[in-house]
């Protein structure tokens, strides 16, 4: 999990440090105050590391730990009672105790072997290097934020310093994965690594842009990879995840529980056909995704990523304006699903303008089911010295909330009408 994000001289921000929740992080502010910049910068650094972390898992780690996993699976289904059932009672009691103790010890031993193997392989294979991170982070920031040159991402609030440097630092629960980079205002496409991680982040990040991507999906990734398109790379990244196959087995059952409120809201389930197009299956009726309401298409994206495991347990979700194109009834469902994902170990970051969503999240967090969650709220305020960030554990810790202030003013104006 990400513990904090520090940024200096980056776009609209002079120098700020955000202390993050392992569950839910809500970013609030008026248009043009840098909410999307925050999400995209944080996503970019996590994505560069996580892409390499997944390669270790896919090609090196999985092959070696599969043997231990097979032993664990066999071990879990061993029936010790069958062994002792034929013994005399006195012998069977002592033998059963001994076997149970042996069973527990052996299980712990296998789990420790698995953990040690992961650490060993992560430390020796594909170790982070400055050369890779400098290239990877520069490309990701350029492709996600889309400046004409990287130096344009430095803050314009630093006056008279031609070599002003932007700095981005991520601190994680696992200190070995901390990342820090910087780049100058004159940089075309290069960054300098200030803090080199010792290990890669292994949990995948997911970025939801303000629009849905299911109607854009058919052929998008191959077109993006082979042609110059003026789309930010988050579209490509998310389309890649949307194309992953659905889960099977125990995790499929687990995913279905999380999918229930979403599929109820949509009135069906999301299907990826062999023709490369998405459909909403409502009983025997199959609806092409372009014919589905925009708001429901956003729910369909969420459903697909839960169904294929991208948003099931652990990992990160960055969601820009999740409430866009949703009516209040659907926003209520959205709030519940967001908190359900937090409960399952997903670290969620949302940027919102919706007072209704903020209130719904606050109401739900009073329920016993969600009281263990520890959200953080961040208010972005535009000043003459750049954007300043207020933060707190409750929304009322923020002194200025534009969406709330304007709602109150509108209510006053409404009451004053003749």
From TrEMBL:
<protein>
    <submittedName>
        <fullName>ATP-binding protein</fullName>
    </submittedName>
</protein>
<keyword id="KW-0547">Nucleotide-binding</keyword>
<feature type="domain" description="Endonuclease GajA/Old nuclease/RecF-like AAA">
    <location>
        <begin position="1"/>
        <end position="121"/>
    </location>
</feature>
<keyword id="KW-0067">ATP-binding</keyword>
<dbReference type="GO" id="GO:0016887">
    <property type="term" value="F:ATP hydrolysis activity"/>
</dbReference>
<dbReference type="Pfam" id="PF13304">
    <property type="entry name" value="AAA_21"/>
</dbReference>
<dbReference type="InterPro" id="IPR014555">
    <property type="entry name" value="RecF-like"/>
</dbReference>
<dbReference type="Pfam" id="PF13175">
    <property type="entry name" value="AAA_15"/>
</dbReference>
<dbReference type="InterPro" id="IPR027417">
    <property type="entry name" value="P-loop_NTPase"/>
</dbReference>
<dbReference type="InterPro" id="IPR003959">
    <property type="entry name" value="ATPase_AAA_core"/>
</dbReference>
<dbReference type="GO" id="GO:0005524">
    <property type="term" value="F:ATP binding"/>
</dbReference>
<dbReference type="InterPro" id="IPR041685">
    <property type="entry name" value="AAA_GajA/Old/RecF-like"/>
</dbReference>
<feature type="domain" description="ATPase AAA-type core">
    <location>
        <begin position="275"/>
        <end position="358"/>
    </location>
</feature>
<dbReference type="InterPro" id="IPR051396">
    <property type="entry name" value="Bact_Antivir_Def_Nuclease"/>
</dbReference>
């Amino acid at each position: 999990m990400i513990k904090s994000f520090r940024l200096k001289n980056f776009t609209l921000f002079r120098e700020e440090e955000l202390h993050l929740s392992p569950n839910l992080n809500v970013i609030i502010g008026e248009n043009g105050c840098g909410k999307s910049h925050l999400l995209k910068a944080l996503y970019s650094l996590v994505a560069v590391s996580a892409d390499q972390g997944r390669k270790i898992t896919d090609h090196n780690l999985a092959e070696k730990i599969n043997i231990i996993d097979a032993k664990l699976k066999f071990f879990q289904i061993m029936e010790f009672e069958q062994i002792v059932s034929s013994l005399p009672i006195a012998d069977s009691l002592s033998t059963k105790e001994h076997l149970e103790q042996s069973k527990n010890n052996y299980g712990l031993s296998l789990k420790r072997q698995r953990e040690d193997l992961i650490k060993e392989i992560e430390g020796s294979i594909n170790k982070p290097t400055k050369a890779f991170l400098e290239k990877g982070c520069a490309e990701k920031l350029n492709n996600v934020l889309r400046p004409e040159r990287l130096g344009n991402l430095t803050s314009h609030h630093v006056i008279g310093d031609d070599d002003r440097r932007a700095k981005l630092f991520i601190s994680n629960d696992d200190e070995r994965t901390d990342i820090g980079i910087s780049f100058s205002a004159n940089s075309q496409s290069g960054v300098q690594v200030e803090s080199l991680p010792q290990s890669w982040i292994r949990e995948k990040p997911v970025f939801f842009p303000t629009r849905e991507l299911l109607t854009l999906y058919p052929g998008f990734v191959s077109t993006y990879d082979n042609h110059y398109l003026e789309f930010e790379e988050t579209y490509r990244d998310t389309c890649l995840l949307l194309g992953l196959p659905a889960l099977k087995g125990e995790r499929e059952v687990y995913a279905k529980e999380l999918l229930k409120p979403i599929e109820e809201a949509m009135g069906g389930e999301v299907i990826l056909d062999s023709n490369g197009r998405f459909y909403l299956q409502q009983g025997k009726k199959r609806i092409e995704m372009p014919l589905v309401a925009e708001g429901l298409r956003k729910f369909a994206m969420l459903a697909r990523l839960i169904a294929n495991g991208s948003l099931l347990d652990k990992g990160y979700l960055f969601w820009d304006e999740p409430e866009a194109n949703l009516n209040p009834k659907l926003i209520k469902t959205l709030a519940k699903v967001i908190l359900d994902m937090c409960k399952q170990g997903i670290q969620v970051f949302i940027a919102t303008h919706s007072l209704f969503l903020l209130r719904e999240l606050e109401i739900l967090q009073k329920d016993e089911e969600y009281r263990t969650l520890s959200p953080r709220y961040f208010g972005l305020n535009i000043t003459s010295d750049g954007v300043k960030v207020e933060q707190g554990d409750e929304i009322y810790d923020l002194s200025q909330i534009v969406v709330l202030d304007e709602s109150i003013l509108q209510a006053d104006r409404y009451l004053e009408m003749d």
